[in-house]
Amino acid sequence: MKKxxxxxxxxxxxxxxxxxxxxxxxxxxxxxxxxNNGEEALEFLEESQELPxxxxxxxxxxxxxxxxFLTILKRDKTLRFIPIVILTTSxxxxxLLECYRVGVSGYVLKPLKYEDYxxxxxxxxxxxxxxxxxxx
Length: 136
Hints:
The chain has helices at about 15-25, 40-45, 65-75, 95-100, 115-130; strands at about 5-10, 30-35, 55, 85-90, 105-110. The protein is α/β, with parallel strands linked by helices.
């Protein structure tokens, strides 16, 4: 399984800790880069020499929300190919449809139970670490 460089865009510190706990518990060797909002993530992507393999994106954030971030990224000739998976509590069908319309790679609801969350994160990361990613 390929080691992934994951950009996590999440403003909730508890959610960040939860993801890191899952990765540690599952003994996954992925690299997590944490940013608190879309603005911070865009700065990171502009300055970074090496792009992430995948972005895990929350929808509800201050400054630039997830959908705005997704729209900005999909307009960029280089960044548009990075797979983006939405990790959200929003089961709003309008959000779901809009994210897919803009070009998201996946839309995953964060379950309340930790065990369910762990299974979803493991599944996402297993898929993307075995998928043939476009590295342009």
